[in-house]
Amino acid sequence: MRLKPSTINGVLTVSVLEDRIDAASAIQFKESMRDLTTCPADRIILDLSQVLFLDSSGLGAVVAVLKMLGPDRKLELAGLTATVEKVFRLTRMDSIFTIHKMQSDAGQNAVKA
Amino acid sequence: MQSRPDIVRETGATHLIIAGDPMSVRAGLIGLAATVPLCDLSADDRGTAELVLGEVLNNIVEHAYPSVPGPIDLWLARTGAGLACKVADRGLAMRDGRAPVGALPAGINGALEDLPEGGFGWYLIRTLTEDLQYERVQSQNHLSFTIPSGRTPL
C-alpha cells in the first residue's frame, strides 16, 4: 500500500497512490495509516483522487482510521472518484466525513484555517 | 458442476472461474472490467457492477470458504434490464438458508466509537441489484441477481 504523506501548515495530507482499497488491502491500509498518523497533526486529509475502486472492506477501513484518530483529530476526505463517492453516499457515510471536491480545495481551506 | 445455473442456457453468457481468495478476486474483477460484457457498460454501470460482484465474491471468500479456499463460478450476460449474474460456490451454506436482508449497519448516526466498520456489503448488494435469489443446491450455493443498467440509485 503506497501512501504519500505531506504536511503543510500543520495539516497532514495523505495521498493514496493505489487505484484500489479493497478486501485484499484494507488491513494494510489501516496499518499504514496508523503508522503515518503518529505525528501530532490535528487535521488529516485523505486524498483519494487516485482510488478508482473502494469496496465495503475499504470503506470499513476508512471508518476505522477515523475512529483510531479519536475525537480530537479530524479526518477529511478529498478527491473522491465517481464510484468511490457512490459507496460513501449509498451507505450514508458521506454524512460522517467532511468531503472536499478536489484535493486542491482541501489544501486551500487548510491554508485559510 | 452437477446443477448448472439457468444463465448458462442464455446465449452469450460469459463463464469464468475465480479462485476463492482475496488476491484472485481482485485480479478477477480487474480482468472482468476490461472484457465483455462489463467493458460494454457505461462507466457508471461498470463501476456498480464491479462493486456488486466484488462484494458477492468477497463474501464467498470470507463466509463460504472461511478455512479452505475453493472455486467460484461466475456467469454474466447482458439482458434488456441490465447485467444478469449467477454465482456458484461449493462452500458453506448461507446462515438459515437465506441471503442476508442487508440492512444498513447500526451506529451510523451514533457516537464516533459506535460507527460501523463493517456490515455494508449486503446493504450495497441489496441496494444495487434486483431479483436476488439464493438457493442451496446439493452442496453448492447458487446466487442470482440482476444489476440494472442506466440507473443510479438515490
Your description of this structure?
The complex is a heterodimer of chains A (113) and B (154). The model of chain A has no long low-confidence stretch (mean pLDDT 91). Chain A has four helices and seven strands. Chain A has one domain: Transcription Regulator spoIIAA. Chain A is α/β, with parallel strands linked by helices. In chain A, the strands form two sheets. Chain A has a five-stranded mixed β-sheet, with helices on both faces. The termini of chain A are far apart. Chain B is an alpha+beta fold and 154 residues long. Helices cover 27% and strands 25% of the residues of chain B. Chain B contains three helices and five strands, in the order βααββαββ. Chain B has a five-stranded antiparallel β-sheet with strand order 1-2-3-5-4, covered by helices on one side. The longest helix of chain B has 22 residues. The N terminus of chain B is likely disordered. The chains are: A alpha/beta (113), B alpha+beta (154).
Label this structure with key terms:
heterodimer; A: 113 residues; alpha/beta; Transcription Regulator spoIIAA; 5-stranded mixed beta sheet; two-stranded parallel ribbon; 4 helices; 39% helix; globular; B: 154 residues; alpha+beta; 5-stranded antiparallel beta sheet; 3 helices; 5 strands; disordered N terminus
CATH topology of chain A: Transcription Regulator spoIIAA
The main β sheet of chain A shows up as:
5 strands, mixed
Number of strands of chain A: 7
- Quaternary organization: heterodimer
Low-confidence regions of chain B: 1-6
Which structural class matches the secondary elements of chain A?
alpha/beta
Strand count of chain B: 5
Q: What is the CA-CA span between the terminal residues of chain B?
A: 39 Å
Q: Separation of termini of chain A? A: 30 Å
Nearest-angstrom radius of gyration of chain A? 13 Å
Q: Residue share in helices of chain A? A: 25-40%
Mean pLDDT of chain A: 91
Strands of the biggest beta sheet of chain B: in what spatial order?
A: 1-2-3-5-4
Q: What structural class is derived from the secondary structure elements of chain B?
A: alpha+beta
Say which CATH homologous superfamily of chain A is assigned: STAS domain
Largest sheet of chain B: 5 strands, antiparallel
Number of domains of chain A: 1
How many helix segments of chain A? 4
